[in-house]
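Need tokens for this chain, all 407 residues.
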Amino acid sequence: MSGALSHLRILDLSRVLAGPWAGQLLADLGADVIKVERPKTGDDTRAWGPPYLKDQEGTDTSESAYYLCANRNKKSVTVDMTSKEGQAIIRDLARHADVVLENFKVGGLKQYGLDHESLRAENPGLIYCSISGFGQTGPYAARPGYDFLIQGLGGLMSITGRREGEEGAGPQKVGVALTDVLTGLYASVAILSAITHRERTGQGQHIDLALLDVQTACLANQASNFLTSGTAPVRMGNSHPNIVPYEDFPTADGNMILAVGNDSQFSNLCKLVGHPEWAADERFSTNAQRVKYRKVLIPLIRQITVFKSTGTWVMLLEGAGVPCGPINTIKEVFDDPQIKARGVRIDLPHPLAGTVPLVANPIRLSETPVTYRSAPPLLGEHTREVLQAVLGFSAEYLDELALNGVI
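Here are the structure tokens for all 407 residues:
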């Protein structure tokens, strides 16, 4: 084991995305992450396909692409949590763990003796991270919560999509389960904070993390806009509520993004497009004025951008110090020379496919770099290995547990 967190063991009882995303991040940083799954079916996302990873003959395997995105560097152990023997195994694993990560319904693990109070009684230094849709308290606490639901309830969809009155207008979800991903990141930060506290005091603690809380916090400037003005932000398509010009523009062969962040960049843009007088026009000379007169300025720019290709504009604008870029497909992202130079795609050995393509962890640490020790595990791939190494189970006892369907 190597990495900054190689001294930690995480018992990951979570499934789907938010919890597994946190577990993968901690595993990438070196933690020993034991993923506990249901026998036969495992994590829900194992069935969330197609697409599935293909074997070396081009045939679909049992490994869905969705599952693969959030579970590398982990060990999969299958345990029947509903059986008394299975509950005893998980409790025993928790005694040997630094962190328990779970995303069951509020109170759902209490019936198995796997809730925070029960496990911490046996391991006072345990850090227990609960991820739920709405948190452990409040009138919605018992409700199940999924990313799509939270994007709507948490206001993100109200500011995502075309303006009201435009063709295709209406609320839109983000194209990935962003609330889950952000919750996974917040969970990782919370866990590391709790680890630091424990190193100083010896005390474990319970982390209560709600998708709705995270979604609301991540409204960022839009939430601040509302709290400051009392006016709720609305959908603006690709326009920015506080900066102009900061949106997409048509080109001769598609579209590009202009992201003008200050008055100097705007002046450079005006010179490049042959209208230096715009920078001196009192309607456009400052960002506040450009926001006020966006309906005048944006059509003027659009009338010019349509006459050159995206590639030409990007070259010219970059040369003038004006932030800009294309709107890439995901295929184009992975073909991009910068992405290739940064090694954003990785390929790990896989027992069914030979190799599996994955997206690298974006954290770059000079002294304790991220390591890629193993591909996302097959269901139950490490059950015997972990239970022998961590709990000292004999081969005969493991055979008995398997015969009885406990593992």
